[in-house]
Amino acid sequence: MISELIGIVLRKGHETCTVNVHGIGFLLEVSRITYGQLPDVGHEVHLYTHLAVREDNWRLVGFATTQERDTFLDLLTVGGLGIKGALSVLSVLGIDGLENAVFNNDWKDIKQAPGVGAKLAQRIQLELSGRWKTRCLNVELPQPAAENPQNEDEIVGGLMALGYSREEAEQASQQVRPEGDLASRIREALRALDRH
Description:
Elements: E1 4-12, E2 16-21, E3 24-30, H1 32-35, E4 44-53, E5 58-63, H2 66-76, H3 83-103, H4 107-110, H5 118-131, H6 152-161, H7 166-173, H8 182-194
Parallel strand pairs: 3-5
Antiparallel strand pairs: 1-2, 1-4, 2-3, 4-5
């Protein structure tokens, strides 16, 4: 696994850069955040990286900070969001903007990213709000619901708001455990839908 690179910037393209590390040129995809922090060609750069390996394609993504890389990896856990979409979200919102959108339930801000429609933006907001519950941010997080189970209709309604049909939503809601707050139960239903 390639976790970071230190080398000389050879070329800078459209949200990409090539870094020479001891005679080997590494082509990296970067967000606008990182691109804006790259030094001029011929200067040394230190980038944190993520190597995505597919059967027919290897992609190396570079980040100026470990925080940006961690946020990118969190985005990749969202079903339906790939490398291009995750970089698009980071490029448009930045880390702070994404965190604010997630915790303020403002999926319309996330929808501004090219290639991210309303359904996917809502899914990003919902899934990351659960994943980031323990983050130390200066925002007031909603308190978990009391221990009375949420009605299945609320799960069905939430899934239909994300663009699923009533039939899909009802089938997924039947696979959700009765305990937990509404957001966590909708996330569980989304995982059930991903399995089909």
